[in-house]
Amino acid sequence: MSDVTEPEIVEELALLPLDAWHRARGGRMVPFAGYEMPVQYEGIMAEHQWTRESAGLFDVSHMGQLFLSGEGLDTALETLIPADVASVPVNGQKYSLLLGENGGILDDLMFTRWDGDNEVDPGVPGIYMVVNGACKWDDIGHLREFLPDEISLSHLDEQALLALQGPKAVDALARVVPGVETLVFMRGGWFDWNGTRLWISRSGYTGEDGFEISVTGDMAQELADALTAQAEVKPIGLGARDSLRLEADLPLYGHDLDTETTPVMAALNFAVASKRRREEANFPGAARILAERESGSIQRRVGLIVEGRQPVREGALVLDAAGNEVGRVTSGGFAPTVQKPITMAYVPTALAEIGTRLTLSQRGKIHHGEVVAMPFVPHRYVRAGAAQ
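Structure tokens predicted for aminomethyltransferase (388 residues):
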């Protein structure tokens, strides 16, 4: 046996376009999805509350921004995701899932139809897609493998992505980029700003009203400065983004969703809502997913409010009355808005009814929780037709 110790291989983390900007503002940087990212500035609780009451600026430039184009794109994409791609209008946005052959979720994503009036590939219509940072390279590989050769895929790796979230986000952003107030939830558009064009959609992952802004990396700092110069806006880190999305019943890939989880198990039936797509049944795992829609899945994602004040975290066990493991917590923490510990967990469908009491075990300590309706905090999206 050799006494030579093998050197430890340390993965080099990528830097966000705003890395120095975050550090200058006191951002505490941590590894996340292959990047150094700010987890907090003032503190998670304060940042969470600020976003709920005013407007928080999140740097989500680690996400993968893609542009797909080519003849037959809608039909080709529908062989990989369950969404009705063909019905999405220009500048319309939709949530969907990249599925494996077993019906498991490879990633969740947002996509938007662009016409030829786009800055990425002027004159060429296509689909703009945002995928999760932790699996964007796998997604790109999967799309390139399974889409026909005539479909072009560009990774927009020079684009930054900022999310401005909260009830006062529209007021702040409209001063910087006039016209954005005309957008409604899940709609986007191109806007001129300081000699460049921004893609802005009224969307986000906090449950609050807000916007996501795609901007070239070299202009990201100037835009971030302009936004945080508004009295309503503060920079917010990953910690508050996680607590906000948990309260809003927004699952996180790699934690609440994975390759063994189907849309029905994940309580994402709305992602397979199109009658045409269900009748065609030509998306991956369609037979299994449609059978689960009809008869139910073995397990289902639920929300729990936990008794006491101590949070129950990912990995805690869900036990039946006899003390046997029947499920697992996938996300959990103390919810600042709810003022109670909350969790997402997968449990047998028979135990998924609202009001069911469940026992949780975290490092040998027993906790008690109750299945409740999600979201824990109501969404505040500005939808089309709603009173402004």
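The CA atoms of residues 21 and 355 lie 46 Å apart.
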